[in-house]
Amino acid sequence: MKLVPATMKDSDFLLTIRRDPVVKKWFLDQRKISKAEHKEWMQRALSTPGYQVFILMIRHEQPCGRGSLIIKGKFVEIALAVHKDYRGYGLGTIAIKALLRKAKATGKIPWAKVKRDNRASINAFLSAGMRPFPDLIEFRT
């Protein structure tokens, strides 16, 4: 698995993943994202220090998903989504391990947010060696 830094040329591929109903289900923001909104997000993300977006690549430079690292204080948040054509092959776990290597290189503490009923992501993060914070409850309005 290669993590290739995303560019604006990757915007349409990333939007396809973001609009996938399975991926969208796990986002906190459930709105339909327009192409213009997505491009604005891409421009912000790519120009924000501490925010890295990657294209997940397998076999002969084939894109199979997206990953990101976002530095937040002493933590670095790991996020990913695997393209629908590549799910069920363990690529989420492989991608998390690759993202973890990059996250640890920042010197920050790697962490991720996963919805409780997202079993595939929970299993992938556990298989990659991450563990839940048993004493943490997250709140929002």
Explained architecture:
This protein has a 5-stranded mixed β-sheet with strand order 1-2-3-4-5, sandwiched between helices. It has 5 helices and 5 strands, in the order βαααβββαβα. The N and C termini lie far apart (37 Å). Strand 4, helix 4 and strand 5 form a beta-alpha-beta unit. The longest helix is centred in the C-terminal third of the chain and has 15 residues, at 91-105. It has a single domain (2-127), classed as Aminopeptidase (3-Layer(aba) Sandwich). The protein has helices at 11-19, 21-26, 35-47, 91-105, 119-127, and strands at residues 2-5, 51-58, 62-72, 75-82, 109-111. The protein has 141 residues and is α+β, with helices and mostly antiparallel strands.
Number of domains: 1
CATH homologous superfamily caption: Gcn5-related N-acetyltransferase (GNAT)
Dominant shape: globular
Averaged pLDDT, please? 93
Trace the largest sheet across and list its strands. Answer: 1-2-3-4-5
Number of strands: 5
Alpha-carbon Rg, integer: 15 Å
Low-confidence stretches: none
Taken as a percent bin, the fraction of beta residues is 15-25%
State the end-to-end CA separation: 37 Å
Number of helices: 5
Which CATH class applies here?
Alpha Beta
**CATH architecture assignment name:** 3-Layer(aba) Sandwich
Helix/strand structural class: alpha+beta
Helix content: 25-40%
Main beta sheet strand tally, sense and closure: 5 strands, mixed
The name of the CATH topology is Aminopeptidase
